[in-house]
Amino acid sequence: MSAVWTWASDWPAPAKLNLFLHVVGQRPDGYHLLQTVFRFLDHGDRLRFQPRDDGAVVLETPLPGVPPDSDLTVRAARLLQSSTGCRQGVRIFLDKRLPLGGGLGGGSSDAATVLLALNHLWGLGLSRSRLQELGLALGADVPVFVFGRNAFAEGVGERLLPVDLPEAWYLVLEPPVAVPTQDIFRAPDLCRATPPLSAENWRPGDGRNDLEPVACRLFPEVGEHLDWLRRRAGAEGSRMSGSGACVFAAFAGEAEARQLARQLPAGWQGWVAQGLAAHPLLGL
Q1: Are the C-beta atoms of residues 196 and 35 closer than 8 Å to each other?
Q2: How far is CA 215 from the centre of its chain?
Q3: How confident is the model over 253-263, as pLDDT tens digits?
Q4: Fewest beta carbons less than 10 Å away: which of 106, 127, 159, 284?
């Protein structure tokens, strides 16, 4: 039975993993051309909304060091207003569980949930494809969260092909660093010419993350956590997600993932999550 989504709902903003990430080229405007597979997890941020009748967009739970006006949740709500002429306002409450600069798509997922939720709550009637277009103006990872399906992505991340992925569990580690995405893509030693893969021929375990070597060089904690995973879970299913810092290992079952989680060194942060077949708001 489909969920009924209202102003009283807790709205999910799930994490994503990049099961692989290749840089296959670069556009004249500097944007990198990518290939990746996005997988959603049953772990992430949560949002709540309350209506305002004065047209204001107010983030009631600002993040330390992030001015509210630049927060992706506020920008997403205001973009909806400006694109539709909507005069309604909103109070946004964000329960932030995903790390900043973690490569799990937290801010992008939050923005996508704002677009989906307020399109519904404000009764705007925009299509999902139109919301994806708006999302791309906010960030390259936003469209896939609006798309709502695990996907093989190309371009700057906006060309999406749904993929069916096998059931899997993941142990995700959070190194104690925030990795600025722009620092990784600006690095002169970043591999920018990996031969493209065929989406039809890709299988789980194929490919690598081209951003890993740069992230591990600039942020040794990322490499330390990744090496720990690979020594215990194997290299084939252990990767960094996005531009880092988080790293993960894939398992067929929950018990294996939790068993390894219990072996984490003292002070290390990590958690176990199940891979989702689709975004929780796909049926909205």
Answers
A1: yes
A2: 17
A3: 999 999 999 99
A4: 127
| Residue pLDDT, tens place only, 176-203 | 999 999 999 999 999 999 999 999 999 9
- Complete edge-to-edge strand list for the sheet that includes strand 247-251: 238-240, 247-251, 169-173, 270-274
Answer yes or no: 96 catalytic. no
CA-closest candidate to residue 164, choices 1, 3, 13, 19: 19
Q: Are 103 and 243 a contacting pair, CB within 8 Å?
A: yes
The full DSSP string for 141-210 is: THHHHHH-B-EEEEETTTEEEE------EEEEE--S----HHHHHH-TT----PPPPPTTT--TT-S-BT
Catalytic residue among 71, 110, 141, 210: 141
Between CA 141 and CA 183 the distance in angstroms is 17
**CB neighbour burial string for 4-37, b if at least 16 within 10 angstroms, e if fewer:** ebeeebebbbbbbbbbbbbbbeeeeeeebbbbbb
In the residue annotation, 16 being an active-site residue is answered as: yes
